[in-house]
Amino acid sequence: MTVRRAASLLLVAALAAGCSAGEPGPARPSTSASPSVAPSPTAAGRPLAGKVVVLDPGHQLGNRHHGAEIAAPVDAGGFEKECNTTGTSTEDGFPESTFTWRVAEQARRSLEGLGARVVLTRGSDSDEKWGPCVDERGRIGNPGRPGPTADLRISIHADGVTDGGASGFHVIRPERIDGWTDDIVRPSRRLAAAVRDALVDARFRPSSYRGVRGIDVRGDLGTLNLSDVPAVMVELGNMRDPGEAAVMESAAGQRRYARALVAGARAFLSAPGPRGR
Ligand code: ZN
User: Fold this and answer.
1) 64 alpha carbon – ligand 1 mean position (Å)
2) pLDDT of res. 170
3) Which label site among 4, 51, 81, 242 has the fewest CB atoms less than 10 Å from its CB?
4) Please, what are the domains in the chain?
């Protein structure tokens, strides 16, 4: 497990770097209608200052060269599951790993522009690397872990369903599992709705084959079960659907997906109520 340990150390180093977030400021976007009071530059330009977002771009390009490592069982929340998989691809061979990486990078830049601190669960899309495993992806950003504690986690994936006509996105929220997800079920439900609404607003269609109105509930995903902060996994579309594949392969499509995820995160973080919990 030397490689795994090295990967962990790299992640810890990455988490330790760039530690510049200050105290949380007023997080809501200013909507003051008063013409005589200008919004403060901080509130207006950095509405997510003080917020921490974990983005988890699914898989790693090099997983395909490390079958034994990614098949090794890890804790997935009271049961064991394989460390990871290779992910899927479009019919043209455009990998899920690369798609989710590009969307995550776009989203990271936007969120940072809004003042948020963003933690990625992997630092590259590299054919030389593999992992991390789902247990690590699910725990990064949890209270008590190295690095900042997250306000939310979005795990980014795309599906590979070969049934003809299967298309559209779905957002997966954690099922209630006592001792594992009972602490995050309610805010994760709110996060799922916010992300779903943002994807619809961005003209993406809810799944034709999974979930209800674009939202599914699962208890078998380590990434969600091990999270102690509000968490969802998004399957942004079906890479085997030719129309969706074309969107996913295009830079414009990737930007549109990223903008939607940012809008969903921002809506969740800006909503009144208990601090994401
Ligand atoms: Zn995936």
Assistant:
1) 13
2) 98
3) 242
4) 47-270 (3.40.630.40)
Q: How many CA atoms lie within 13 A of 227 on its CB side?
A: 35
List beta partners, residue 156: 57, 234
Could you state, in chain order, the average pLDDT of each consecutive group of 10 residues for the chain (277 residues)?
40 35 36 47 82 98 97 96 97 98 98 98 97 97 96 98 95 97 98 98 98 98 98 98 98 98 97 57
Cα-to-centroid distance, 58 and ligand 1 (Å): 5
Q: Which of 105, 235, 244, 249 is catalytic?
A: 235
Give residue 141 CA to ligand 1 midpoint distance, Å: 20
CA–centroid distance, 28 to ligand 1, in Å, is 33
- pLDDT, residue 271, reads 85
Predicted TM-score (pTM) of this structure:
0.84
Catalytic residue list contains 91: no
